[in-house]
Amino acid sequence: xxxxxxxxxxxxxxxxxxxxxxxxxxxxxxxDRTKPVGEVCMAGDPCAAAVVASSGEPRNGExxxxxxxxTCHATGAAGAPKTGDAAIWSTxxxxxxxxxxxxxxxxxxxxxxxxGLCMDCSDDEIKHAVDYMLDHSK
Length: 138
What we know:
This protein has four helices and no strands. By secondary structure, the chain is mostly helical. The protein folds into two domains: 3-48; 61-135, Cytochrome c-like domain (Cytochrome Bc1 Complex, Chain D, domain 2). Helix 2 (61-73) packs across helix 4. The radius of gyration is 27 Å and the shape is globular. The chain starts with a helix and ends with a helix. The relative contact order is 0.11. Residues 49-53 have low confidence and may be disordered.
């Protein structure tokens, strides 16, 4: 066997060893992400303290606004009408009507995506949030 063949063989062995190590690390991290049922945090466990339990009841407008809509509508981000700005809300209400504002909030309008990306909000919850913003913008 000549020197060139030895170098090629050694290089191939090094590449294969590196590949085996990386596959082993990937399998190990996948095992960490898919722990057995007994090691999963369940409702009521201390590790689940950060999880908010749903009462099954629809959220009111204030709850939806303060957890979903506030980020843009309190600051005016991306042109969102600011809650409390009576002039802009009355103009929009006059131009589109309440049903139009509901439709914009549910289907999206200008820079606002559908439901403001609140995909776990029902249409009624979105309407409650619009009502909340209108009530606080008089």
